[in-house]
TrEMBL record:
The chain holds residues 650 to 933 of 933 of the full protein. It comes from Exiguobacterium antarcticum. This is Bifunctional diguanylate cyclase/phosphodiesterase. Keywords: Hydrolase, Nucleotidyltransferase, Transferase. Residues 24-277 form the EAL domain. Coiled coil: none annotated.
Length: 284
């Protein structure tokens, strides 16, 4: 046995545990403290209307600034948080902080900006986040129109009635819903057509690095499918101007990616937005 004291909680390591697993147990216990220690922050990435070039929405992406390890990617710590109810605490923090940001932007040039927050399917299953979002809507009337919730598609999740019911409730509350990473999770078409959603986000694996446009037929099929179901489409992972241009020609409504901006802190986002507005005015 090796014992590590972390935030007062003893952690026991057994000899059968892999190095990777031990590491994740340490991270998990540090993550428990991260909210209280103000180590979490939301970055924002613009979503650009490919036809009008307007930006009326952005995605909130979580960052963990660890005092020793520096910035840790959500791709690393969200799966760890999902192993326990920690993901619920994080989800509520993300929703509250997104709401705070919407309210901070009220009365500024970004006053009509919609913020899209990511929610884990694990949270929808427990139902606590649905209660929280119900409460948020009561506390801030009209906030639901400024918010969108992104749920990642993964195998079979939408056939889970708890997930389906949670989405239904959020829809009735007036929140906009989007399916994230579409095309990677094998949603059954029959469920897809019944989901109370407004938007599909095409996974960036179809877009980024597709210089030869070899995915174009596939992308076009996804866009047609979305439109048949009356959903609009956001393409993720646009890194070059030409990718945005060909997506626009395929009738894709929105684009998101490093070509427009990386995810950045809110003050930088305001500066980016100002400059973007100036540039679009000049180019007509
Ligand atoms: P996602 O929701 O699909 O977010 C898009 C990811 O693609 C982000 O990675 C973003 O930085 C990255 N990205 C955007 N444009 C480009 C591009 O042009 N090229 C490339 N290569 N990448 C691009 P990030 O921020 O590391 O987030 C990874 C994933 O972590 C997210 O994927 C989402 O599933 C999850 N995540 C992030 N924030 C949250 C959160 O607040 N709650 C939950 N539950 N999950 C979150
Ligand atoms: Mg997302
Ligand atoms: Mg995605
Ligand atoms: Mg994702």
């Amino acid at each position: 046995h090796a014992k590590r004291e972390q935030a007062g909680e003893p952690i026991w390591f057994e000899s059968w545990m892999s190095e990777e697993y031990r590491e994740s147990v340490v991270l998990e216990s540090e993550l428990r403290e991260a909210i209280a220690r103000n180590e979490l922050q939301l970055f924002y990435q613009p979503q650009v209307n490919l036809k009008t070039k307007e930006v009326d929405g952005c995605e909130a992406l979580l960052r963990w600034f660890h005092p020793e390890r520096g910035m840790i990617s959500p791709a690393v710590f969200i799966p760890i948080a999902e192993r326990s109810i920690l993901i619920e605490e994080i989800g509520m923090w993300v929703v509250q902080e997104s709401v705070n940001q919407v309210r901070r932007w009220e009365g500024t040039p970004l006053g009509s900006m919609r913020v899209s927050a990511n929610l884990s399917v694990k949270e929808l299953v427990s139902g606590r986040i649905v209660e929280f979002l119900t409460d948020v809507r009561d506390r801030y009337p009209g906030i639901e129109q400024r918010m969108e919730l992104e749920i990642t598609e993964s195998f079979g999740v939408f056939s889970d009635t708890r997930v389906f019911d949670a989405l239904q409730t959020l829809h009735r509350l007036g929140y906009r819903l989007a399916i994230d990473d579409f095309g990677t999770g094998y949603s059954s078409l029959s469920y897809l057509s019944r989901l109370p959603i407004q938007r599909l986000k095409i996974d960036r694996s179809f877009i980024s690095g597709d210089d030869a446009c070899s995915n174009a037929p596939l992308i076009e099929t996804i866009i047609r499918l979305a439109h048949t179901l009356k959903y609009d489409v956001v393409a993720e992972g646009i890194e070059q101007a030409e990718q945005g241009e060909s997506l626009r020609k395929l009738d894709c409504e929105y684009g998101q990616g490093f070509y427009y901006s990386r995810p950045i802190p809110p003050d930088e986002f305001e500066i980016w937005y100002d400059r973007y507005q100036e540039e679009s005015k000049q180019s007509g």
